[in-house]
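Limitations
The structure tokens in this dataset are predictions for the assembled complex, not deposited experimental models. Users should treat interface geometry with appropriate caution, especially where small molecules or nucleic acid strands are included. An illustrative entry is reproduced here so readers can see what is and is not provided.
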Amino acid sequence: MAVLSFAAAINSALDVALGADPDVFLLGEDISDPGGGVYNITKGLSTKYGEHRVRDTPISESAIIGAATGAALAGKRPVAEIMIMDFLGVCLDQLANHAAKLRYMTGGQAHVPLVVRMSAGAGVQFGAQHSELLEAWLVHTPGLKVVMPSTPAAAKGLLLSAIFDDDPVVFIEPTLLYFGGAKEEVPDGDVRIPLGRARIAREGSDVTLISYGLHVHTCLAAAATLHEAGLEAEVIDLQTLEPLDLETVLTSVKKTRRAMVVHEAVGRAGFGAELSALIHEALFDELVEPVRRLTGPNTPVPFAKPLETAFVPTAQAVTTAVNRLWRGKLSPA
Amino acid sequence: VAVGVMVEPGMDVLLGMYKVQAKIAAVDEQFRQRIARGQVSLVYYSPRGQECISAALGARLRVDDYLVTTYRGLHDQIAKGIPLPELVAEYLGRSSGTCGGKGGPMHVTHAASGVMVTTGIVAGGLPIANGLAVAAVLDDSDRVTVVCFGDGATNNGAFHEAVNLAAVWDLPVIFLCQNNQYGEHTPIGRSMRVPTVAQRAGAYGIASARVDGNDPVAMWHEIGAAVDRAREGGGPTLIDALTYRFYGHILGEDLAYQPAAEREAAIAADPVPAYRARLITEYRVADSVLREIDRDVAVEVDDAFTVALASPEPDISSLYTDVVAEVTV
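Predicted assembly:
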């Protein structure tokens, strides 16, 4: 065990994978030393494993995803980095039309065991083109797996599973966790967390808060406040959106009979809409109140600090919304 | 081989290329006739007129070399060696097809023959070809990857990103432009300002060649040079192979965008019978030898269609499989 930051845990997972399997290699913009990427996530790896396995690319996201796809078809386990999630816009053809569909289109002949890593989310005033969460695009594409960790240990364990998974996995790293996330004990070596399993981040009996990535922490902060007001919120960290651990969600909501989905991506046709529909379809008669969503508004992400802050779900907004869900029965938090 | 010494193709290569051309033309003929008669239904992008390029390609590649092609890929797929019954069955959406009928004419893969990807997205295959080539580099293998595409693809960003990355990484990849003069319905002169596709290589610092794609011997030389360069670590090549498609972008479309005289002239210069005649006059092949090849091809193609058409359509249960790896609990 070592106490690692979110960034160091990702670096550790890449290090372990590169060390364990010669078929693993990394590619992306600026990822080699001395910098190890714009966020220093891959620092030290090109020095340790060589620039043939930690490959710098031009600023060519289609070429990056395509090269990863082709190498994966030929038996490699590439880990591509496209820096920021909004850049999916310039390489989505390679990801959605090729990597995601090749296993199916080839009748199972092709396996595309690649990982695409990217940072994502608002909070550092990068403006509308460097701050979005676009997970809904990805879960709407059959053939892709979608992972968003919330803690250092989860990041390492899930990334190792993603790298050794036989399908294309998009691995979304909340940018704010690079900077402000808490450190925690992370297992040494190749310790994997399976894809498709949610984590109960906090147990509770009165309401279920469901989130992933950064906003698991938003929900946990809200749950602490709600606890002081006498209400026990269960917080579910989905960890992977596809495959989705619906069973853990439904088990919790059966118990609490009230649920709210919290995510930063815009609410319209967002992942919360899908999850809400799934819960309603399964548990309509058992719900005391309809499932609520607390999401980013239907706007691009703004630059100015007060606007950006207003865009992002906060713990206070969660507690207020939970109070509404309970029809104001709670004492104000 | 000493510099300047031109190795000419042997008789086995010359006849092999003819057989592949004849096979492509015969399969194409069957598809077009059966579609016209309403016997089969498929979206069909005829490769007729472009056979020589593929025949030369097939003669220069090993089975374990990789090929990436496009929706107009029947000729490439045949030349790379996909067994005809499975190939035809895939075009017809049958369960015995290379992809169990889930790919169709635009998405044929047959890994055993090295046909790794057939894409329906113009220029979409080029970035993937780089990845196949990267794998060879990482494995220290001398396998090469060829990606075929049309002239229209060279106006797409993926072409430029991919050629540049291949150049920067010195990849063993060959960018084979089957320049049939049209990107869908628009002639090349209205889609690009530079006179040739070949000179686009100069922008990326890689080798290039411009060649008559309807001359199989010239193609054999150029592809051979590019394959040798790639195998020996000399990096990528862009080949601009000039040709013409006889039946437009998609079979059955209104060809008003093409001057009829231009098309008729191309068909009059049909490269398949032209090469057959050349084998007799220039290479002194007996007509009886070629007649035997023609007979063999006719039987093989007839058999392939018979087998493919006898194959059942896929079971509906296969709709739900192969989305992701089967989970074994």
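Some entries come with short summary sentences. For this one: Chain B touches chain A through 46 residues (CB under 8 Å).
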